[in-house]
């Protein structure tokens, strides 16, 4: 029951912090939009080929661009509060519709990558800490250093060469078999091979980050008195490492995991391009190419929102690992 | 730090020279910097010029030991000239990020109160927006140049430094030597710059290596996506060009990526070595 209480408290605390953060991001993004050269009227005029000064003024006043900056900001906030991110200047469709088409793919990729990064990172870090100073630790440290220093998208490209071109085990791009029209479990199994390489490419850097962190944190914890007590009680080493040491060592890891979410999601832009994965990152790139700034800002806002929501999950994990968290 | 009175600088230097990973990292780094500096003499002329038959494999023609790309450009020349862009953007982006981050962190940590609260909120804001997306938006605001890219990466990467510096300053604010400086009537700017900052320098120096490494990786991603400076060869651009021929000539993708990996690994090794010496209690080794 105290678990439920803590969960509720953590949720409330995050909600209180998330609202001003989201508001700040909207204002920040809106001001960025103002710094961009040109506006909708210029774009439309460029597309139609010819425009007079009067018609430009007419377009500006229809779009509300002749209003004072603060009025425009208020209007934008009001629209976003109603989930209206404006129209795509390129496709003429609502931005929210464009984004919602891509959102599930990005979510699947992000969560798989985060899970892989945390799972493999903590596992590798624990093995390194248990064998600290001996050869398994040294070999893994080199491997981890390599992944820590290598762009994920390049690892993805090299994985395509090895697993798709040479061995033919996994598809090199896309998110599902085209025209297969599968449903249920069959569709899920069909998508799985497509997910492996992009998720690994996106996670590779973060596997290394979490492995390094877990190793350092675990070595710190292993020096504590209560672990000597556990050893003296005659507990089996596996129980000592997992139940006593790892749980405490994971606290800094979850803290940093929350801080890195923004970077993880940002990496999706490049990885989605490498694997032609139809997600929000590629939508952002298409928007850059077409100077479609409403779409770009919509993607920026929604991915920031995703980071906040995932942070709540990480906070909950943190509260479960460390019951003292509620005090802070 | 306080008890290391006798020649602390020499002691730190000796400890570094005994650290093998630091030495390897520095050696590789010096080699890369040397190649970057010597590129105009080693490979005179524009690395974007066509010089030989396209897609020569490495070793096929001794004149072009690393082969040529799909337009017959010398890969070795591209790598050497690309090192200039990668290192320059990496260093200047890190410098910009450090400058902003240290300023924000120092003010927040020293001032406390509502100033601290406001600055922490702004830092969180920048940390929530996916970094790479923010860089893309900043870069796409005007024509991409190497300077603009460094600026964008720097502006997007300062929050990590700000958090770190703030924590250091909060800890040091209540130290005795700061109280002594306050009592002796020193101005706040002098206390921050002359008394606290030198004592907070060790973790900042260590973070610098991570900042440079990440800036190089970010620049590679940007130029891979063709958002880089179109008039310069960069390792990321080379990977992006090589990707078209991934199935037949994968060395065009592999070589520039290996150059990035080698350089960033060297920076991280040097940084880890610095960390072992400057923060002996950090748990590494």
Automatic annotation (TrEMBL), chain A:
Annotated TM spans: 15-36, 107-131, 143-165, 192-213, 249-275, 295-314
Chief site of localization: membrane
Family: Belongs to the binding-protein-dependent transport system permease family.
Protein name, per record: ABC transporter permease
CDD domains, per the entry: TM_PBP2
Annotated localization: Cell membrane
Alphabetized InterPro entries for the sequence: BPD_transp_1_N (IPR045621), MetI-like (IPR000515), MetI-like_sf (IPR035906)
Metal-binding keyword on record: no
UniProtKB/TrEMBL annotation, chain B:
UniProt main location, coarse: membrane
Subcellular location: Cell membrane
Membrane topology, record value: Multi-pass membrane protein
CDD domains: TM_PBP2
Annotated Gene3D superfamilies: MetI-like
Keywords, in A-Z order: Cell membrane, Membrane, Peptide transport, Protein transport, Transmembrane, Transmembrane helix, Transport
A Pfam short name: OppC_N
Keyword Acetylation part of the UniProt annotation: no
PANTHER family listed in its UniProt record: D,D-DIPEPTIDE TRANSPORT SYSTEM PERMEASE PROTEIN DDPC-RELATED, OLIGOPEPTIDE TRANSPORT SYSTEM PERMEASE PROTEIN APPC
Name this polypeptide is given: ABC transporter permease
Native source species: Roseococcus pinisoli
């Amino acid at each position: 029951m105290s678990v439920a209480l803590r969960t509720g408290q953590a949720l409330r605390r995050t909600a209180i912090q998330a609202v001003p953060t989201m508001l700040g991001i909207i204002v920040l993004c809106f001001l960025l939009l103002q710094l961009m050269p040109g506006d909708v009227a210029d774009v439309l005029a460029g597309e139609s080929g010819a425009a007079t000064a009067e018609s430009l003024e007419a377009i500006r006043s229809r779009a509300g661009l002749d209003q004072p900056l603060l009025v425009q900001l208020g209007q934008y906030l009001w629209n976003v509060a109603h989930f209206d991110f404006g129209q795509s200047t390129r496709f003429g469709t609502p931005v929210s519709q464009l984004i919602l088409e891509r959102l599930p793919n990005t979510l699947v990729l992000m969560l798989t990558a985060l899970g892989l990064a945390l799972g493999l990172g903590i596992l590798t870090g624990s093995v390194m800490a248990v064998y600290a100073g001996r050869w398994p630790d040294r070999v893994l440290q080199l491997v981890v250093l390599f992944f820590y220093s290598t762009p994920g998208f390049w690892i993805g490209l090299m994985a395509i060469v090895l697993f798709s071109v040479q061995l033919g085990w996994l598809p090199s791009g896309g998110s599902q078999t085209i025209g297969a029209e599968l449903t249920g479990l069959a569709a899920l199994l069909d998508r799985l091979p497509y997910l492996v390489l992009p998720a690994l490419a996106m996670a590779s850097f973060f596997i290394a980050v979490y492995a390094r962190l877990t190793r350092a944190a675990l070595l710190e914890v292993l020096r504590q008195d209560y672990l000597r007590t556990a050893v003296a009680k005659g507990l089996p080493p596996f129980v000592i490492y997992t139940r006593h040491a790892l749980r405490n060592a994971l606290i800094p890891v979850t803290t940093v995991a929350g801080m890195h979410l923004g970077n993880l999601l940002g990496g999706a832009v490049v990885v989605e391009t490498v694997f032609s994965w139809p997600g929000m990152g590629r939508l952002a790139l298409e928007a850059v190419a077409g100077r479609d700034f409403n779409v770009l800002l919509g993607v920026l806002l929604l991915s920031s929102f995703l980071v906040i929501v995932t942070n709540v999950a990480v906070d909950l994990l943190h509260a479960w690992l460390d019951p003292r968290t509620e005090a802070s | 730090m306080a008890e290391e009175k006798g020649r602390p600088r020499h002691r730190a230097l000796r400890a570094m020279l005994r650290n093998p990973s630091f030495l390897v990292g520095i050696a590789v780094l010096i080699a890369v910097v040397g190649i970057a500096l010597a590129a105009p003499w080693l490979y005179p002329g524009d690395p974007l010029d066509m010089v030989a038959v396209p897609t020569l494999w490495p070793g096929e023609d001794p004149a072009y030991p690393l082969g040529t790309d799909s337009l017959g450009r010398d890969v070795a020349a591209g790598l050497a000239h690309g090192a200039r862009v990668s290192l320059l953007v990496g260093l200047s982006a890190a410098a910009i990020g450090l400058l902003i981050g240290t300023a924000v962190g120092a003010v927040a940590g020293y001032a406390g109160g509502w100033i601290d609260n406001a600055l922490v909120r702004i830092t969180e804001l920048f940390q929530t927006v996916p970094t790479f997306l923010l860089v893309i938006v900043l870069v796409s605001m005007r024509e991409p140049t190497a300077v603009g890219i460094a600026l964008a990466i720097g502006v997007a990467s300062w929050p990590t430094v700000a958090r770190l510096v703030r924590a250091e300053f909060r800890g040091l604010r209540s130290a005795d030597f700061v109280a002594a400086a306050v009592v002796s009537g020193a101005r706040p700017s002098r206390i921050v710059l002359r008394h606290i900052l030198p004592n907070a320098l060790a973790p900042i120096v260590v973070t610098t290596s991570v900042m440079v490494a990440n800036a190089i990786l970010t620049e590679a991603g940007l130029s891979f996506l063709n958002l880089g400076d179109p008039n310069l060869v960069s390792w990321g651009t080379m990977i992006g060009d090589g990707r078209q021929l991934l199935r037949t000539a994968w060395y065009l993708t592999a070589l520039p990526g290996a150059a990035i990996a080698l350089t960033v690994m060297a920076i991280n090794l040097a940084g880890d070595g610095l960390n072992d010496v400057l923060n002996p209690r950090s748990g590494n080794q």
